[in-house]
Design a protein that fits this description.
- The complex is a heterodimer of chains A (563) and B (511).
- Chain A is mainly alpha-helical and 563 residues long.
- Chain A contains 27 helices and no strands.
- Chain A has one domain.
- Chain B is mainly α.
- Chain B has 2 domains: 372 residues, no CATH class; 64 residues, no CATH class.
- Classes of the chains: A mainly alpha (563), B mainly alpha (511).
- Chain A: It is an enzyme of class 2 (transferase).
């Protein structure tokens, strides 16, 4: 039956391309239901992975006196619930900023306040001022983990689903053309994209293991990129401002967004001057109003405002804290930066070098904007920030990982490589949190599932051979399958060897740092090796993605404002 | 080429589920964890003839000898990991290494399960698509995931051996393979004696398709007997001096009819009806004073009924045996050899279900004995698929009370929904429609509500009062579903409407 329907649709298509969209209704609803079921299966699997990891320890689990990020989040609930807004970011007898003071922008604070209100009902002891420090219990862990899951369900997962089902067909014309193309069983390419983004272990390990709410800011970021791709600049910038006000690290993505909006709205052949002006004014008004509303409680007094801003951009904290896979940490192995420069000098060096690294991709995006270039510029910008800017955390690699995930369908092989290295670069942090087992299991899961989905086709081809022989006879289809499938073959044998060697290095270093104890002389040996190893990779990836961006087509494939 | 592809598929799916199992290592574990740790200690420290006598812990060894030998070999590896877990007096010891080690033994033992799936698939699955569906249904069974990798037991390993023996015994064309099947089943019986319940199906099948063929009855019967006796002697031989002691450990009749959690079977329904009647009786003052006293005590005695006659162990055995006879009869006298290996599997499922429904002191985990073999049939027959969907979703829900800690609630719901969606997608792919009636759909759709009530809502409404109510509700509601599927499955098996039709249809299509 199914075969016959497919053939029918195909013949319809051939007859008239106009009618292609008006698929017979019955088939449409049937496919729609099974499509919903398939995507919910993928989402379910993603939730399963997330929730399984939530049983593992969090950062600072049972480690007084400072604990870790889990305690920080709990402490913020305590502070925001018990103190007036004006004192949230200021040092006082009730708010010791040295002990996990609030250093994220206002929306995080509002979110903590909301959670604090819930906690005061569910578990009042966990948010009592002063007395709740270091509060840990089984039910409280459950509450905190559940709060992450709920935010994920509300923000990140809907954003990814929207991206995979609405934006992907715009980005990749192939996907739209071959909607009926079946992969393994009845899964399609966008299901694979959805699965890849949702199974990415880096985000899961940090949010559900280490404990943070990255899913909120990253979900808002995906929403903003989706809106920008659809041509609605105001909505896109609105979401971006929200993301930025949840976590200031979103600044890593700010420049490409800015240049993309500016580049699209440059008067020229595509758009008349007036339309551009109107669009730009719209965007700037949105940004200003959103900022004003979010920051309103902090604008009443200059001191409060300055306190808040200084908390968000702490210059005093040094160029890096733990071992980070960026250039400064790598240089520091041979040449001790902190002995030779003051903090301010280092900050200036960082500023200059980051700007230099950012300029090429930003200018390219500004003068020749396109959707593909935008994604690549997001990767390049965040990667340059990660490698060269001041005060970088290991976790910030997630900000690079996300645009790479969005770009995945265009260049699966190198994106996959990057993603594996990005998770690996966080290994020292994860080992410190006791998440070693979770790291190995989730990364293996990701590697197997992704390589199965994207780099292997024998099974799906075999099934297809049996299932729809008639379709297989069309030579054009066969060619396309071969093309999309043989990534391993086409990328050349040298790349393959390099890739295998690189993964072997990841495996060896992971096992060593997971199982072996470092020699007494060099206690930081393994974290350092991990950082340097990943830093070299990241640097090469920066060059590669920049090259890719310059090669990408600059023609806008579709008109922007489709109304 | 074909086996290459299917093996590759199996390896990958197995690796993926192994990752999930590893992620589940730090979750809650039940007392069964301590039971198995204690057995490790017993087998490691005591001489063989004291294994079944030791009473140092309340968790005495109550599995057959081969399983004890299995624990013995594990304890040899355990010495390398953490010596303290092998201390016989070290009760409730669960260090990180111990937990890691014990969980890993279960994960590794599941390799046998994967091998069993491969064997069963080679016998029963005709196409690669059937194979994939079978693997995804059985290897990713969430009941096993819950019982083995959270609650802690070795069911995957045992069911793997069951699948191997089913696969071997179903190859009627080769005498050698059938004998191997009998051998593996004897091994299984000596690993866990709960599989005695499906032994009648094996006996009938071996008699019918092996012994009574080609007029070599006596020769073949002796051959079979020798193999089975050999396995039993090997296993029980070292314990020959105190056999009664071993047997009394294996068959403890002192336990009550209903296991602590109320397995959702006929007796649970009886207990529910009994409770309802006793409330009515009390209202009309028809109760004796003694019984009123026991009722007002709060905790109602679970091993005796108030109004209805309380069944004795003998009675439950007789009724179980009587109810398996029709199934065996059909298997024996069914001359239609075209699909008889499948009928053999059906008979096993029915034996498993009958013992689950009417057995003495049944564990709710025993439902897996029926669900896993049903996976084989669900791939090729729409009726089996329909029963599979009902039975698996009900059976898994009935397992959920095993995991009582609150933080496991989201996990239960995610797993349950995923398994249901997955089986519907896969089976819809196989047969154009599965044909669940609307009331069946409603019944299945209401199951998660029961789970949510049991874990969350009950606590909100009653706080700590009426602790038995959610469990009773779960087992009665699930008991209804299991009885329903049992009855229609038995009916369909005896009168064979859909099987014959589907076979005829297949033949028509092939022509």
């Amino acid at each position: 039956m199914r075969d016959r329907e497919n053939v029918m649709i195909n013949t319809n298509r051939k007859d008239s391309s106009d009618r292609a969209n008006s698929v017979p209704k019955e088939v449409g609803t049937k496919d729609g239901i099974s499509e919903i079921m398939q995507s919910s299966l993928i989402v379910g699997l993603a939730l399963l992975l997330r929730w399984c990891i939530s049983y593992h320890p969090y950062s600072g689990d049972g480690k007084p006196p400072m604990f870790g990020d889990y305690e920080a989040q709990r402490h913020w609930q305590e502070i925001t619930l018990n103190l007036p807004i004006s004192q949230w970011y200021s040092n006082s007898s009730d708010n010791d900023l040295q002990y996990w003071g609030l250093d994220y922008p206002p929306i995080t604070a509002y979110h903590s306040l909301l959670l604090g209100h819930v906690a005061s009902v569910v578990d009042p002891d966990s948010v009592k001022l002063h007395r709740s420090r270091g509060y840990e219990s089984r039910t409280h862990k459950y509450f905190m983990r559940l709060s992450v899951l709920i935010m994920d369900l509300l923000v990140f997962i809907p954003a990814v689903v929207y991206f995979a089902f609405t934006i992907l067909p715009i980005l990749d014309s192939k996907i739209k053309k071959h909607q009926e193309k079946k992969e393994f069983l009845t899964f399609k390419k966008r299901h694979f994209v959805l699965a890849t983004i949702l199974f990415y272990p880096g985000l899961i390990l940090i949010d559900y293991g280490h404990f943070q709410y990255n899913c909120v800011s990253l979900g808002l970021f995906i929403a903003s990129v989706s809106a920008l791709f659809q041509g609605s600049m105001a909505i896109g910038s609105f979401f971006f401002v929200l993301a930025l006000n949840y976590k200031q690290m979103e600044l890593y993505h700010a420049l490409p967004c800015f240049f993309y909006i500016l580049g699209i709205n440059t008067p020229g052949k595509r758009k008349p001057l007036l339309a551009c002006l109107r669009s730009l004014i719209c965007v700037s008004l949105t940004v200003i109003i959103t900022f004003a509303v979010i920051w309103a409680p902090f604008l009443t007094d200059k001191k409060i405002f300055m306190d808040t801003v200084l908390r968000l951009f702490p210059l005093t904290r040094g160029i890096f804290e733990d071992k980070v896979a960026n250039i400064w940490c790598t240089i520091n192995v041979l040449y001790k930066l902190r002995n030779n420069f003051s903090n301010l000098q280092l900050a200036q060096i960082c500023l200059v070098s980051t700007t230099v690294a950012l300029l090429p991709s930003s200018l390219d995006l500004f003068f020749r904007p396109s959707r593909e270039k935008f994604l690549l510029a997001l990767i390049n910008s965040s990667l340059s920030f990660f490698l060269l800017s001041f005060q970088v955390h290991e976790k910030s690699i997630l900000l690079v990982g996300l645009p790479v995930l969005l770009h995945f369908h265009k260049d699966p092989f190198s994106c996959f490589w990057f993603l594996v290295i990005s998770v690996f670069s966080m290994l020292p942090l994860l080992i410190k949190d006791g998440l070693c087992v979770a790291y190995f299991a989730s990364l293996t899961f990701f590697i197997i599932s992704v390589s199965w989905m994207w780099f292997e086709s024998k099974i799906s081809q075999f099934v297809k051979n049996k299932e729809d022989k008639q379709e297989e006879k069309q030579t054009s289809r066969k060619l396309k399958i071969k093309k999309s499938v043989s990534v391993w073959a086409s990328s050349g044998i040298y790349i393959n060897i390099l890739f295998s060697l690189s993964l072997l290095g990841v495996l060896v270093l992971s096992v060593c740092s997971g199982l072996l104890k470092a020699p007494k002389k060099y206690p930081d040996l393994f974290p350092l090796l991990v950082s340097v190893y990943s830093c070299i990779h990241f640097f090469l990836f920066l060059v590669y993605f920049n090259y890719k961006q310059f090669c990408a087509t600059s023609i806008l494939t579709r008109k922007f404002k489709v109304k | 080429m074909k086996t290459y592809i299917s093996d590759k598929f199996l390896v990958k799916t197995f690796l993926l589920i192994t990752c999930i199992k590893i992620l589940l290592i730090p979750t809650y574990h039940s007392t069964d964890f301590e039971v198995h740790r204690n057995w490790l200690a017993i087998t490691h420290n005591l001489p063989v003839n004291e294994w079944y006598i030791s009473e140092k812990s309340q968790w005495t060894l109550d599995y057959p000898p081969l399983f004890a030998w299995f624990e013995y070999s594990l304890s040899k590896i355990a010495t390398l990991i953490d010596f303290k877990m092998l201390n016989i007096n070290n009760h409730n010891y669960a260090s990180v290494q111990t937990k890691l080690f014990q969980r890993c033994t279960v994960i590794c033992a599941d390799l046998v399960f994967a091998y069993g799936i491969r064997e069963a698939a080679q016998t029963f699955c005709k196409s690669i698509q059937n194979f994939m569906v079978f693997v995804l249904l059985s290897l990713y069974n969430i009941g096993l995931l819950i019982v083995d990798h959270i609650h802690f037991q070795y069911n995957g390993f045992l069911l793997g051996i069951l699948l191997i023996s089913i696969a071997k015994a179903s190859k009627i064309s080769s005498q050698n393979e059938i004998l191997q099947g009998a051998f593996w089943f004897a091994v299984l019986l000596n690993l866990k004696h709960i599989y005695l319940y499906i032994a009648p199906a094996y006996g009938t099948w071996l008699l019918r398709s092996y012994c009574l063929k080609d007029n070599q009855f006596i020769y073949r019967f002796i051959k079979l007997g020798v193999i089975v006796t050999f396995v039993f002697i090997l296993s029980f031989g070292p314990f020959i001096n105190h056999l009664p002691q071993v047997l009394s450990r294996l068959f403890p009749f002192k336990r009550g009819i209903i296991h602590a959690y109320w397995a959702p079977n006929a007796w649970a329904l009886c207990a529910g009806a009994d409770k309802l009647l006793s409330v009515i009786w009390k209202k009309f003052n028809w109760l004796d004073n003694v019984k009123i006293a026991s009722m007002s005590g709060g905790l109602v005695q679970e091993d005796s009924f108030m109004i209805l006659p309380t069944p004795t162990p003998i009675f439950t055995f007789v009724i179980t045996f009587l109810l398996t006879i029709p199934a065996l009869w059909t298997l024996f006298f069914n001359t239609n050899t075209y699909n008889s290996p499948k009928n053999f599997v059906r008979c096993i499922i029915l034996c498993g279900l009958t013992s689950f429904m009417f057995g003495w002191h049944v564990h709710e985990k025993a439902i897996l004995t029926a669900i896993i073999p049903l996976c084989i049939l669900a791939t090729s027959n729409a009726f089996d698929a329909r029963i599979f969907i009902i039975l698996s979703s009900v059976g898994h829900t009935s397992l959920f009370p095993l995991l009582y800690p609150q933080e496991l609630m989201p996990l239960k719901l995610i797993l349950w929904f995923m398994y249901l969606i997955k089986s519907i997608i896969l089976l819809k792919n196989q047969f154009d429609c599965i044909g669940l009636y609307s009331y069946e759909q409603f019944y299945v759709g209401f199951l998660p509500v029961i789970t949510i009530y049991e874990t969350v809502i009950h606590r909100i409404i009653f706080s700590d009062k009426l602790p038995f109510l959610p469990l009773a509700l779960t087992s009665i509601y699930c008991g209804l579903g299991i009885s329903y599927s049992y009855i229609i499955y038995y009916y369909e098996y005896l009168f064979k409407n859909s099987y014959c039709n589907s076979e005829i249809n297949k033949k028509k299509v092939e022509q």
